[in-house]
């Protein structure tokens, strides 16, 4: 990581774009155990996760990704030496993904006068994603324009060029209605809709009308991508399908037409008519005369390259007929009877589109090396004849001509570069990002076939530049599909918008040249201060954006008042007679800025700006503020005005809200006490208008399907509806007396510094009001006044509190809290939000694991994690940054009771290995835990508690949905299981039951009458999943010495991981007859699990120990296989190293396992 930091500092750094304070310390990067070789093979999202672990600020992720890309480009994937050296006398070359004028390849320049620049404000930064005719790209050397690479968007550039030069596709994009999106772009202060069709129209317009390489940032933003996503290289074939599918959905939404044979297969919109074809999957069973078929739409055909020589041999393999015979016979079902027959299965072309996309499967998966690239020679041709595969079609429909070749250059799947060759006006051109150049036929064809070539020393080396996608156009329609598209075909609103942006850019350049003569005034109103309190104490909040109708660029020498009033009346519709204008200015000896000065006659804009370039001006009217006349004012009197601001501190909500402003008009100055008395009615009225806390989420802990434990509804307090502030509950006659006791006020004389009001109030004073804290709220108030609340503000950390209920983990609140808040304060805070403040001690917290991105498997105990900072600290030592996630659960018992006793949460399982209820018990620490004591306590809890049914974990993906009769039958089985526990004598339960310790689908320990020693543990592990079930019964009629109790686990093989065996589902224990064979055992297992034999026919049985897996042989007795594989003692539970325990494995895919997130997958979010 230090090498990446060097590249950032000395090659790509730009002080105008990045803040050096955000650079991480070298000491933090030295702790990172990830090597450069590891980073080179990661996806973009995985790299960002490493950056976050190293404490790299989010704003620096793009430049760090660019630096890492430079290292991989120079050294290659997996070959980066950790001692990579960089010459430290090299200067940083300006680069940013947000500047279209910046080069995207990292050059290093030696410091010299030739490259020095004057210290000026720099070029005017264009709005992110905005494309103007002067895009800042390289001037095109041909009549065709290139596309700028944002970082790793070469695949997208190649695809866009290929689509743009298909004239019919370009014309289709031009015809899509996007006039509303164009109108939204006229106002840069309004957040516009991100429309993919409109972004494509603008991009194509610039490619057609401009003379420079064009930026694609606006298009990728319309996909919903951030600047970081532009550094993640995707597959061009996948991107093609996603983009076409998205455009097709936006074109008339999918309409079917009943005309002709073609329209019955394809969708009736322009995209589908160009790219969508029809395949027919067929099955022929000649024995019974059965012929079945199913049609399938396609955007592209995937041709196999491995073990083929050219495009026609790949088509032969694609259409090769498969014979289903032997054990793989085809099953036919008639009147509920199944029969198996020899059959032929295959696919054939029924309809081809005018534009045929061929994806070449250049990447293959190797079980040892992972995803590899197929580098063998594979030929393609200028003309393609498909008549052999479509004998029913005419010659005109089967002849195609090559139009585009998309090429991947690189030796493996995760590294490389894309470019393309396009046929334009009967000549071939190479489009490589912004570079466009003529290409020879050898470059288009032979150079991209792959294979091997001789290097300088005469050795054969693979040619890693290969065709990856081919675009063929039907020869009979090539004149129409590639016809000329003139300027008149470009949508007029797109051209007009781009021309307007060009004028705006020129205007900004002119303004920059005259900037020293002008200033900018931003007009604000009370509702703006409600959103941003910083307006009260600064000239302009940093980073705040203002709409154009409130932004006034004016000459410094202009008299302020008439100019401001005219602008406000014109733009905001406020009459001049109602306006009072105020601006921020330094006040007092300390020089702090307050919003307090009135704009009066004779003051110039320069006087208001005080040497600055920008400033806010506050507009008030009698209707928007509290206007008070302290004296009887008549026309002609000399009146003075003071502007006072009001805030309210709400200790129960941990926040300060803005109440409004008061304009105090007087002839004779009034004291602060008199002013407060005049203002107080307005404050009380505003308090009554404040709504209840928007963060309240009553019963949130029940939204995830119930709490983790079984909670008696009678003991769960009903949420109390919090009343709005100011909604008094006392009788009206007592209101006045009570009001005077409930309000206090302090003056904020400095930022976050407060004191009692001075004898006289000054214009610009900020008065902080507070209601008295009621007795019922005192326990939930942690900072009773605004002064103590400052301690809270100084220790803020971001935190998102989630409900600890998988799989959704719904968010309760996403906010900022003080890291020194105690465990109990957090309990009270969460309990108030969910509407149960009385039972706050039932709230228990769990930390976030940065490795799994899920709750940590151990709970956060009060004594070990006493504060929020400790709860957010990562439980894994090698992670140092605070997490922002915290999980809570609503417990059956209080946390104090739980941590003072033996706590056991368990599920009750039936003999079908399905959970039927879940429970929670506490046992005193003073009482020794014995099987008799444990199981008697558990059974009493089961008998007393109401059953809390849960859904079982399905163990097969082929299990059909249960019908109503079957559901009733299963319910009867569950009722009978519960009757067994209801009738069981608690004192004898230890003879019938056992406690099983399960974690991640694997049995670790068993607690029963035969294993009493394990109950000597001080407490139960909270990380485990405990379940109580009946003790397994031996096989009847088989001597005990001829059978063994074996643990059976469901598992899958994940070969690319070091721990290749991944267990899942609900394991169980099962007696196995030493003399029985695998098929019979599988039938008994299916019966135990309540499954049909057909449901488990594809399951494989294996003997597993650690990562050693041996498939069970069907013709060998199981006893022989068991004890040849491992000693009998290694099958037993409660071993010192549980992961080394042997078991019988059932290999199949889990049904409810969440799909693996593939961060490199193309995702279009719009």
UniProtKB/TrEMBL annotation:
Provide the top EC class: hydrolase
Membrane-crossing residue ranges in chain numbering: none
Q: Which Pfam families match?
A: UCH (PF00443), USP7_C2 (PF14533), USP7_ICP0_bdg (PF12436)
The entry's keywords: Hydrolase, Protease, Thiol protease, Ubl conjugation pathway
Please list the GO biological process terms of this entry.
protein deubiquitination; proteolysis; regulation of protein stability
One Gene Ontology cellular component term attached to this UniProt record is: nucleus
**What is the reaction catalyzed?**
Thiol-dependent hydrolysis of ester, thioester, amide, peptide and isopeptide bonds formed by the C-terminal Gly of ubiquitin (a 76-residue protein attached to proteins as an intracellular targeting signal)
Task: Name the InterPro entries on file.
Answer: ARM-type_fold, Papain-like_cys_pep_sf, Peptidase_C19, Peptidase_C19_UCH, USP, USP7_ICP0-binding_dom, USP_C, USP_CS
The molecular function GO annotations come to: cysteine-type deubiquitinase activity
Q: Where is this region: Disordered?
A: 700-725
Q: What is its EC number?
A: 3.4.19.12
Q: Which residues form the USP domain?
A: 145-475
Membership in a protein family: Belongs to the peptidase C19 family.
Q: Which PANTHER family match?
A: UBIQUITIN CARBOXYL-TERMINAL HYDROLASE, UBIQUITIN CARBOXYL-TERMINAL HYDROLASE 7
What is the recorded name of this protein? ubiquitinyl hydrolase 1
Supply the source organism's classification: Eukaryota, Discoba, Euglenozoa, Kinetoplastea, Metakinetoplastina
